[in-house]
Amino acid sequence: MRERDEELVASLDAGDRLEFEGLTTRQVRDVWELFRDTVLPGVRVADAEAGARLWENYVLDMPETSLVEPCEAPTLIVTGRQDHIVGFRDQLALLEHYPRATYLLLDDAGHNPQLEQPTLVAAALQDWSRRVHAAE
């Protein structure tokens, strides 16, 4: 964890605090507000039984040969350096299959980099969108 507003975190409902602490690196008000508005609604309605089944076999073993042909479309891969769920190293292997990829590794970001580094993610999305439209 890089940044933490102890007063904010202590004020959260126990369940919300558990989710917020488990998925974010920057535990501050602006990240909390984005998390509350965009992530928590999905967490609250998620099928817990289905989620448990997914966690039983969460690792996706995908050998490099499983992608037969490279994807030539503009691609954006955004990762958080502190993402303890997916991580960033395994995503590097994808670059071999996406020759037009932009790979963005963000420090001070965990599993939801769009919440913790929204300005940088927005800039990358704008660039990706421009490249997609130019390729049409």
Summarize the structure.
By secondary structure, the protein is mostly helical.
Write up what this structure looks like.
The chain has helices at residues 6-11, 14-23, 29-38, 40-45, 48-56, 89-92, 113-116, 118-135, and strands spanning 3-4, 26-27, 75-80, 101-106. It has 136 residues and is mostly helical. The N and C termini lie far apart (41 Å).
Alpha-beta content class: mainly alpha
Low-confidence stretches: none
Distance between the termini: 41 Å
Radius of gyration: 17 Å
Q: Helix tally?
A: 8
Question: Helix amount, in percent?
Answer: 40-55%
Taken in chain order, the helices and strands follow as EHHEHHHEHEHH
Strand order of the largest sheet: 1-2
**Coarse shape:** globular
Q: What fraction strand? A: 5-15%
Number of strands: 4
Overall mean pLDDT: 90
What profile does the largest beta sheet have? 2 strands, parallel
Which tags fit this structure?
single chain, 136 residues, mainly alpha, two-stranded parallel sheet, two-stranded parallel ribbon, 4 strands, globular
SSE layout and pairings?
Elements: E1 3-4, H1 6-11, H2 14-23, E2 26-27, H3 29-38, H4 40-45, H5 48-56, E3 75-80, H6 89-92, E4 101-106, H7 113-116, H8 118-135
Parallel strand pairs: 1-2, 3-4
